[in-house]
Amino acid sequence: MILSKKIDSPTTPYQGMTNKTNILPVLLRARDIRPIWAGKWPIKSLFWVIMSLISCEKPTYSANDVVPPFNTSFDYGSNMGYYPPYWEDKDLAILAAKCGVNTLRPGLFHHFVAEWGYENRISTFEFYQQMGLRNLVAILGYPAPSVQDTQSFCSEHPSALFRGLYEPIWENDGRQNTANQSNTFAKYVWEVATRYQGLIKIYEIWNEPDFNQAQGWRPAGMPENWWENAPLPCETPLHAPSFHYIRMLRVAYTVIKKVDPDALVAVGGLGWPSYLDVICRYTDEPIAGQLDDRLFPLRGGAYFDCMSFHSYPHLSDALQNSLADSTTDTSTSEGALAEFWRLKNQFDAVLHRHGYNDTIYPAKHWICTEFNLPRRPVDRYPGTEQTQINFVVKALVTAQIHGIKQMHLYSLADETTHSDTASGFGYMGLYKKMSDTPRQNALAWAYKTTAQLLQNARFHPEETQKMALKSPIQGAAFQYPDGHFIYVLWADTAGEEPEAGTVGYHFPVEFKDGKACVMHWDYSQKKTYKSLINKEIWLCSEPVFIR
Hints:
There is one protein chain. The chain has 547 residues and is α/β, with parallel strands linked by helices. The strands form 4 sheets. A 6-stranded antiparallel β-sheet has the order 9-10-11-16-13-14. The longest helix has 21 residues, at 333-353. It folds into 2 domains: 38-453, TIM Barrel; 458-546, Immunoglobulin-like, CATH 2.60.40. The protein starts with 42 loop residues before the first helix and ends with a strand. It is 26% helix and 12% strand.
């Protein structure tokens, strides 16, 4: 989750994620109440706020009106990382595909394209497409120093955002279909969208703009919580008011929809439901996020189609140990899965509360652009490789049950070796720590098995209901385009290893007798299977595939 910037090269830029190593009132309704940093807002910027809204910036539609369809089958993704000197991005894509990956989450950061040119990555993105990779997610943001905002909203850091964010989006007061040079973020998004149209499906605005370990987790009623207070500028890595992030969403949405209406705009991999609530309850008005029918007519939920979130269940205990109700045991794969869905459901509740439920406004598409568990013990977390494998397979399966469109594993390769001292993020790779000879972890076999066996299959709720699953049995049925089914089953037992406990399951009588194969997570590597006898199987915490 921790973003560590690296210097990019023209051949192997930092793509996607690399190594992770006083109260502001929310409802500032009175016009004479301003945040403590409001006096730092330059008169020139306030002038451009007014000018930008006179210049016909309001799009003809928003995500409150329509969300483009996203009807392809489920995508198995990965974050790529940065592994000099051996591996360029095309090489990394090939390595990812060998693990069953069919989509990626690269970055097209401004500080890279400003130095090496906007066209620099076109051939690489075309290569991804030729490989069969689809529905790519591109992270946008991270300005070069030449266009970074010089304003300071807190004493510790200057703003991390783009200069001219509140200047007009379009040249000539909107009469010209060219982004305004003075709005450096709009210009950057325009240059990317016009060049990469058809190569990018989802534009993710920033990465983890809500990264925070002090305030984001706090429930309503606690001091400095974000449910009842807007984040202070220094409480997030943006070092700017949260309304400015909403402004980035508005600018990106306006520009991208002009260029490529079928593309999706996503929030930047959020970790805290309270920050999503901030986005949905405020506008991009720069001082207090207030609604204004003429100038700031829509809250932030109108400016994104796709809800992107991150989940690392092993961290939940550490970050929420002051909460009395934090009782989820994430040391097992089933506990980690419960924590994953607890977080997702909290995000979903926020969107529903703000009307994004296909009743008031269109529902959002869902993607998870970072998830995993460490396969080694780290601090208090007793991680094991089998727990990691079981959790990842279960997360991929249940994501399809609940309509998530993509899951992106973090990450392509380990950041360390077992002998190194590191955070849990060091032990999450599909591959071991990169060298000139890549070596897969067992997780890569499980990921490829799941992706291969469920390729083009879709969750089938009616067939799943016929399975008559009862606790502790969990699972689902998936149907291939030719009408055949594959089933995934496991049991919620006390441990991860097969000897930790087994539970019997018998397919109901209406299921036809016949030959069926039982495949485990390492099927893609070993190509071995067992026959299902008398429609009966003994299950443990490890998921199995039956077809």
